[in-house]
């Protein structure tokens, strides 16, 4: 554990740094963007809904009046949107890329490109975004890529023969596979950065059980009112607030000495509390599977990058 007293007050000065935070209009992403802005970073709120993004930016400026924040549309479920976002981002250097956005336990659906929604949004969208922003990250000494996974990855490993969420489709299995994919992606990204001796850290984090709105989105989409009420009650009784859930991400993004391919989460039973190194399932750090998933992801998205010398 890194000590029970690590809080947002311990975030080092971020003045002069640029941070891109996906899904920054609410929940963990909003808190992450707000606290980075509070410490002086220029934050790009990358949001699927520009309206909700602008509302979040207004709220952020009320809480942090001197914040430097901008909103840019990014739909991780549409690779054209990902390419457009990356091409229009005016910064040649990016210090922090926080792959935070995600969907959870949705009914079966597909992205604009025909991929199962959870795998497409949670993994493939972020894979493509990171690859497209890699030149700006590599041009920035000390840059970091932090991808938000989940303890739910422990439910299932990746099956490259079936990226559609299982036959028959099981929403929680599909979610778990997408979160395993986040960790395998981090594992292979860290390896590639290490091979070429790039000064970029790829790390992962998870919020434990945090009330973010993700829990109720799936049941609400299907009109399952009882399930929605159960999830909402669970958030009220058991979950920690988004402010606490964002701490592992902020730690991974800013704390000195964060190691490549590390995985941080809450310290108490990996559920709540101060940031600490987190357990991960063996299949989430499998070298061979990480490399295979990378190759498949590059083929599916049409986006790839190998750092010079990798």
Poorly predicted segments: 214-220, 226-238
Q: What is the fourth-level CATH superfamily?
A: NAD(P)-binding Rossmann-like Domain
Query: Main sheet?
Result: 8 strands, mixed
Q: Say what oligomer this is.
A: single chain
CATH class, please? Answer: Alpha Beta
Number of domains: 1
Instruction: Report the mean per-residue pLDDT as an integer.
Output: 89
Q: What topology, given as strand order, has the largest sheet?
A: 3-2-1-4-5-6-7-8
Order of SSEs: EHEHEHEHEHEHHHHEEH
Question: What's the shape?
Answer: globular
Radius of gyration: 18 Å
Strand content: 5-15%
Work out the helix count: 10
Alpha carbon gap, first and last residue:
33 Å
How many beta-strand runs? 8
Helix proportion of residues, in percent?
Answer: 40-55%
Q: And the CATH topology?
A: Rossmann fold
| Proper CATH architecture | 3-Layer(aba) Sandwich
Structural class based on helices, strands and sheet pairing: alpha/beta
Pfam families: adh_short
InterPro entries: KR_dom, NAD(P)-bd_dom_sf, SDR_fam
Family: Belongs to the short-chain dehydrogenases/reductases (SDR) family.
Protein name: Dehydrogenase
Tell me what you see in this structure.
There is one protein chain. 50% of the residues are buried. This protein is globular. It starts with 17 loop residues before the first strand and ends in a 9-residue tail after the last helix. Strands 3-2-1-4-5-6-7-8 form an eight-stranded mixed β-sheet, with helices on both faces. The chain is built from ten helices and eight strands. The longest helix is centred in the middle third of the chain and has 25 residues, at 171-195. Helices cover 43% and strands 15% of the residues. The chain has one domain (14-299): 3-Layer(aba) Sandwich (Rossmann fold). With 310 residues, the chain is α/β, with parallel strands linked by helices. Keywords: Oxidoreductase. InterPro entries: KR_dom, NAD(P)-bd_dom_sf, SDR_fam.
